[in-house]
Amino acid sequence: MTELAEISTPLFIPEQGTPTHPIRPEHVNAMIDLHPGGLTWRRTFPGTHDQIPRARHFTRYLLADSPRQDDAELIVAELATNALQHTSSNRPHGTFIVEITRTTTAITLAVYDCGWGATPRFANPCRTTAEHGRGLAIVAALADRTGHEGDDEIGHRVWARIHTP
To answer: pTM higher than 0.85, yes or no?
Structure first.
C-alpha cells in the first residue's frame, strides 16, 4: 500500500511559501470533474516585463500538484513575453491576460494580448544559436497542440495545450 505522502502534493500558500496540507490527486480530479470543461482561472497583468515572474508564479501556484508544472510555467513565460514584445500590450495602460484551463487529462495555457502586433507563427524555424526568436519554438516543443485566434483590432489569444498523465 502506498503511503499518503507518496501520492500527494503539498499545497503552498504564496504569502508564506510553506506547505499546508497534502492534496490527493483524486481530490483534484473530483473537483475538476464537477465543472463541465474543467476549471478555468484568468488573471490580468499590467503590460510590463516585471510582470512575467508574477505570471510564472500564478501558473506555478495553480498547478502545484501537476507533473507538468515546470513546462506550464515556461510556456506562460514565453507567451507573455511575446505579447509584450510583439503587440501593443507593452504600451502605456497595456495589459496581458493569462488563462489556465485544467481538465483531468490536459492543461490549456493561453495569453491574451492587446492586439496590433504580429500573428504568432509556431512553425517558423530558428537557429539553435539565435539569442532571440526561439520562444514559440520552445512552446511548440513542450506542448501537444498550439494555436491562436483573434486579430489586430481585438487582440490575440495564443494558446498551448499539454496533456497530463
So the answer is: no
Distance CA 128, CA 109 (A): 25
C-alpha to C-alpha distance for 38 and 104, rounded to whole angstroms: 7
Element (H, E) at 155: strand 155-163
Q: How far apart are CA 58 and CA 53, in angstroms?
A: 9
Report residue 123: phi and psi, to 5°: -90, 0
Query: CA nearest 96: which of 112, 72, 108?
Result: 112
Cβ-based burial of 154 (10 A; exposed 0-12, middle 13-18, buried ≥19): exposed
pLDDT single digits (tens) 23-60 = 677 767 777 777 777 889 999 999 999 999 999 999 99
Q: Which residues of 18-38 are buried (b: 16+ CB within 10 A; e: fewer)?
A: eeeeebeeeebeeebeeeeeb
